[in-house]
Design brief:
By secondary structure, the protein is mainly alpha-helical. The protein contains 13 helices and two strands, in the order H-H-H-E-H-H-H-H-H-H-H-E-H-H-H.
């Protein structure tokens, strides 16, 4: 698995970045910008998305010591499948919850504080700027991961861009979801607020796996989005939508299922670029060489 990932990431580096420049501040800034533009173009390229999803799918099977399967079965190019509209709507709106969980877990590991303490910091707006940036990057990654499920064409939209190129308005939308999820989760964690970290983590895990809670959180995050945009809050699910289905492309669903790792990588790269002024290609090379620090 390691060899396969190294080869694929190496090909990514080679196709994305053709040259390196000296490390003077201005030159480095231009090179970082150039590399981010390259990643941005790959991010919205349907052909590259397909090739990356196919490679990541194969790496999954290699990682569990199985022979990679054909990415598409015969006919998958044209086959359609019915999906629950209710489940899709819940899934679309849970991205902020999953971003929060990942971010808080990492922040707890870095600081040895508890989830409850971090949720309080976020809600009270006392989290430091680095923590806010980290949470925003997680939020953008989880949002991106959901878009291809809605339709692969959504990766070509203007706001589907590398995290560093997001407008202030889009960045605020991401953090609004983090804030909303934090306020809701903080209430749900009250009964373990004074408990040890491991008990709080267990409570968090239980909530993540609770389908009833998932529905309530999705509904809350959906309404919070409209409130933050100063728009009327629509009904989350009408009586007809509760049992309705939507037609989806099997091909696009398979790509969407396999591409999440790429979006995680892209947002992670952007976080390190912002906080450490590192070249994306240098970060990728350190991953390939297995020399990236434990912290990073």
């Amino acid at each position: 698995m390691k060899k396969f990932k190294i080869l694929f990431l190496l090909s990514f580096v080679q196709c994305a970045f053709s040259c390196k420049t000296k490390n003077e501040p201005d030159t480095r800034k231009r090179q970082i910008q150039k590399e981010l533009i390259t990643i941005d173009s790959l991010l919205r390229n349907a052909d590259f998305t397909y090739s990356m999803a196919k490679a990541l799918d194969s790496s999954y099977y290699i990682g569990i010591d199985q022979t990679p399967q054909d990415f598409f079965a015969p006919g998958d190019d044209t086959v359609m499948v019915l999906k629950s509209l209710k489940e899709e709507k819940i899934a679309i709106n849970l991205a902020g919850m999953y971003a929060l969980e990942c971010g808080v877990d990492l922040l707890c590991e870095q600081t040895q504080q508890t989830p409850f303490e971090w949720l309080n910091k976020i809600v009270d707006k006392t989290a430091d700027t680095n923590a806010v940036l980290l949470l925003n990057r997680f939020a953008n990654a989880t949002w991106k991961a959901g878009q291809p499920f809605r339709g692969l064409s959504r990766i070509t939209r203007p706001n589907f861009t590398v995290a560093n190129f997001l407008s202030p308005e889009e960045i605020q939308k991401d953090y609004d979801q983090i804030m909303a999820a934090s306020s809701r989760l903080l209430v749900s964690m009250q009964d373990v607020g004074n408990k040890p970290k491991n008990e709080q983590m267990q409570q968090l895990r239980s909530l993540l796996q609770d389908t009833v809670y998932a529905f309530k959180m999705a509904k809350f995050l959906d309404s919070s989005y409209y409130i933050n945009q100063q728009q009327p809050v629509p009904i989350f699910l009408s009586s007809t939508e509760d049992t309705a289905t939507v037609i989806k492309s099997v091909k696009e669903q398979k790509i969407a299922t396999s591409i999440a790792g790429f979006y995680a990588l892209e947002c992670g790269l952007n976080y390190l670029v912002t906080t450490k002024n590192m070249l994306p290609s240098d970060i990728l090379q350190s991953i390939i060489n297995n020399t990236i620090s434990k912290e990073d």
